[in-house]
Amino acid sequence: MLEKIKVIGFDADDTLWVNEPFYRQSEMEFAEMLSDYGDEEYINNEFLRFQLANLDRYGYGIKSFILSMIETALFITNNKANISIINDIIDIGKRMIDKPVELLDGVKATLEVLSDKGYTLIVATKGDLLDQERKLNKSGIEKFFHHIEIMSDKTEFSYRKLLKHLDINAEEFMMVGNSMKSDIIPVIDIGGNAIHIPFHTTWIHEQVDSSKDLKFYREMEDISEVVKLFSSY
Amino acid sequence: MLEKIKVIGFDADDTLWVNEPFYRQSEMEFAEMLSDYGDEEYINNEFLRFQLANLDRYGYGIKSFILSMIETALFITNNKANISIINDIIDIGKRMIDKPVELLDGVKATLEVLSDKGYTLIVATKGDLLDQERKLNKSGIEKFFHHIEIMSDKTEFSYRKLLKHLDINAEEFMMVGNSMKSDIIPVIDIGGNAIHIPFHTTWIHEQVDSSKDLKFYREMEDISEVVKLFSSY
Fold it and tell me: What does residue A46 show for φ and ψ, rounded to 5 degrees?
């Protein structure tokens, strides 16, 4: 099957570079700020509730995260907090945006090899375009990619749109990513190829029952193994 | 020159559908909310200052607009306002997101004709992906477009990336839009074609000195004139 592959799509956050731990860190700071109003579990749960309620309107990314954090603070404090807490939340967001990029091990070498082999490499991510372009720019790996594909969500429907846009068939596409829900299952379900590389931290909204029977996808511990897979092509 | 054109890019906001008047309306509501702290001109100026200061971090779109509005409110009230004003600002944003789409006159018929002639039509916009997908979806014109191209900014650099992504030369590309600064000048400057269709309202940050001498672009009053231009091809 692999000989048909023309385009390899890479998820960005927690596949190419560290991301989720920064979100977790920001959530801990947020819970600390509101510690007079409830314990960390309660605050995290309310925050998640607002994030999910706002997902259709706001989508993914830091700006959405911050807007939901502001709404959660207003709710939890019943509009009684000092308004300066809003400034503190906005600062959390700006610090997240300004974070340096930490590439994951083996990423650069893997992209170099696959790029040399003539595959078209793209970033396929559902983050915010500006966040992701900024990270790609800081990362030094931009040159390996044909372009960034920002997807408002990673569903079968949106992968079909992506394939149409790339003018290729599903069997010509391979997706590499850390989320079973977003990077693997929908791609396999439309007839594409996928490699799952788990990351140690996964947002609760991305977690799925991994016992689902899925043929045709591969699990790897490290992105460098992707190169071995393609070594005979 | 026109016989070389393969791809026609359409700006979205205020080219395909009404947008800027909704932003102006929200600014008026915002100035009204803060009328105890200054007149409309002062509040608008401070708001613009925050929007421009945040542009590199936040980019364009409703979420950025709302985050800058919140920061402006904190600044103007010197953190003294009732925190409920933040809720009111968040509501402005949600109402903007939920607005129905008003297509501009002639858009649908124009897209129909150009699509039938075999041109690849794309939306090339620097808004927020989710905002723009939602509007395209509500608009009923999604079927005419090959895909939406979200650009973090509309500079010569980003148009060059777009052409690379489309695998075409500049002379094979025609851009149609309402902003001289974003849709016309950078496209002409890299050797592409462009049609300017002014809209009655333009954000101050998009305004340029229109006396700049630019050959090779056309000015039209109405999108329907685009069809006449291509009628002999």
Answer: -65, -40
